[in-house]
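ugh ok so i messed up the first submission bc i forgot one of the chains. this is the corrected input, ALL of the components this time, i swear. 901 residues overall. if the numbers dont match what u have on ur side tell me asap before i send this to the collaborators (the ones from the other lab, u know who)
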Amino acid sequence: MTAKRGKTVAAPRAGDAAQPASKGATPKKPVTKKVTASATKRVVKEKVASQKVGVAQAAPKAKAGSKTPAKSRKRRPSGAGADGQNPFRTTMRRSRAPEPATMVIFGVTGDLSRRKLLPAVFGLWQDGLLGSAFNIVGVGRQEMTDEQFKDYAIAALQESKETDAIQPGSLEKFRELLFYEFGEFAEDEVYDLVGKELDRAEQAHGGRKNALFYLSTPPSLFEPISNGLGRLGLADQSEGWRRIVIEKPFGRDLESARELNAAIHDTWDESQVYRIDHYLGKETVQNLMAIRFGNAIFEPLWNRGYVDHVQITAAEDLGLEGRAGYYEEAGIVRDMLQNHLMQLFALTAMEAPAAFDADAIRDEKTKVLRAVKPIPLGRVKEVAVRGQYGAGSMDGQKVPGYQQEPGVKTGSHTATYVAVKLEIDNWRWQGVPFFLRTGKRLPKKVTEIAVVFKRAPLGIFPGGLERNVLAFRIQPDEGVSLKFSSKSPGQEMVLREVVMDFRYDAFGAQLESPYSRLILDALIGDATLFPREDEVDHAWQIVSGILEAWDVRPGKGQTPDFPNYAAGTWGPEEAEELIGEGRRWRRL
Amino acid sequence: MTAPTASTLGPVETTVRKAQVTLDELWSQTNVETRAYTGNIVALTVRKHLERVQETLAGLEGRYAGRQIIGVMDGSDDLNVHASLVSQHRGTFVERLTLDASADQLQGAILPLLRPATVNHVWWGADTKLQGLLLRELTDIADQVIADSLTLDIPPARHYALADLGWSRSASWREALAQVFDTPDAARQLPLVDRLTVRYAGSKELPARLYAGFIADTLGWKDLRNVEFRAARCGRENGDLCGVELVGDGVHFTLAAGEGETARVEAVWDDKKHITEVNVPRMSLAEGLGRVMARPERGEMFERAWKLAKATL
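and heres the new structure output, hopefully the right one now
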């Protein structure tokens, strides 16, 4: 459709007139899920109360979708498919596939959508993984016709480095799946138009009106959009499943995260909410679970008896790349530590789940996050180090310091580096510190989890004993390596460290974009790789003291002299003290 | 594994005993620092198919098998061995040993050349019947035997995974058909389906029979009596499918290969017609081979489909 829409009620599309009026085509009641203010308050109160004591929330039962009655006048014999289950799926390699659905991307003209989401969805579609009836409805505030949006999306696919090799004719076909609506997110009209898009998809393809709403917008719009979808009844699952994907940051501190959770839950059941952390979509992050729980040899060593400490590093070589506005507000703790690093930490430290399913895995992650020794204001100095980069040199080029980056306030206290020591109060990890560090303008882009084992109890060979290290390289050069000591060739019994290396590229397969995996999971309804409400809550609890010390009370004499590390170095000196005597950060 | 581009090194004439040394010498000419041994693939063939086998293995890009051993079985008792490092994308290499001899000679030559403690795939890339000591020895050590199972009359066995390339290459058609019935409304029409037509490209109809066996078994049919096979032209290569039609009282589901990698789906039930399009990617022989090696699809479904298909021959 190319007719201009937006503020006016959408005209019926070609073919619509021949179809019987659907429920969505009639004027909607403003709210189909009626929630009284007192009921809402009660639910929120209960939820917040339970969060305070750290109780994992059992998701309330989703409203059962009313089954579409069989409309046929004919008698139907029983047999495969009679129950509405697809018998062809039961024996297939991918036993679940998305049902026909519409993916609605709010903020579709944004950077994330252009560079990551559209290429990921295109890749899935081109690989035949999105089913026979799939549409994308882009939603934005920018006025555009369908045709203009199609041009925009195709250009984005052609420009993005993330786009898979484009097969001849694919773009033209994919173009046909794209539609666009625009309007103000605070008003009802745009959601009404989205509802009509779902009606149209249903009429075109049959089936139910399944929809995945992806909020690729600034965080300030999460609540208005969630509420708007709720007001227009688009969260109601009686005509098909409805799910909402929310990008990070999920809140800017513990309190705002809880408020946002409460606001989201006014409209959505927890089972409909998919908080995305793209680190969990990375192959090598999933491989961490595969190696831990798919092999017998590691688990016996994975405890305080053998492990000296664990280092988790997420280093970035880039600076702000024009994102000063966001970064000045967020800083490294909200941008990386509270979400990505905390997820890597939880996967490394958690107990073996009872099954590889969403609840079992998220239960274990939540348990270990709960077991982290709290970091109140008074402990921050002891367990956390922050930094901000100054001018330096990277790859032979001089680069400016953080405060010289365009858009950064003079005298900014925003941290671009954080190192933190987490201690876990449980039987497995008592006394084993986990050191997490992340920063910008570090010497190279590398993400790694290193499990550093204790030294052998007795040295019977000349020279010192080295520690064994099992390292998971998340990016780049994805793989796993084990460092151990071996005899050097020669007449003397001299040992030296050697590395046994597994590289992921030995599989010869190109790694998929984490977004494609996560989008497919959300469409299928598998929330295993999406942080649950209580996980996010506990992750915020862990960093709350740090944020308070560094952001809320920066003038209490705790602010170091920023900048305190030069671009192109591994961070401030204080980080070396944090890791302690007899240990050192890995040189990556 | 650092060189951005590289050319194939070899072939260099060698012997079974010196093969590893020859390969090491070739490796030393590369900038490769680490080697990953992901598996062995032994491809048994005859001269007239050698080129096709070599092309297919080259297209495999070393995935899941870092060493390729090609046994050309219609040679003499004089064993000829050639070693090469076949260049791949991103500066990687695959070891290839090509042996030309009689089947008896090959039996004694191939086994010592297998990289130990890794996965062994055996691909019967010939149209003769699998038999003899060579095959028996290889199936003993094989984790997977890949062959055209209907032509060669190899029943699925329990001691190794049997993979059929025709079955593997029709995976995208199975997925496409499944997508049509992901809608519960469409799935509810399946008990009404009582006839099936499968259209295949070229002259090779065996993959169509396996595909029909898959559908028939899923629908609970005891045989393929109500199935019709038709040769068709749809621009796809020999061994691929062109479409499928499921018909019953008041219901009709058709998938027809369209342009490029798509198939048009027309579904009729409750007097309503639903038209959509699904992606049905073409799968080359190399891609099909890579697929079965990546995740062997041994399964009861294949075995049941095989039995139904075999009964029609």
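quick check: The longest helix of chain A spans residues 324-349. that seems consistent at least. The radius of gyration of chain A is 26 Å.
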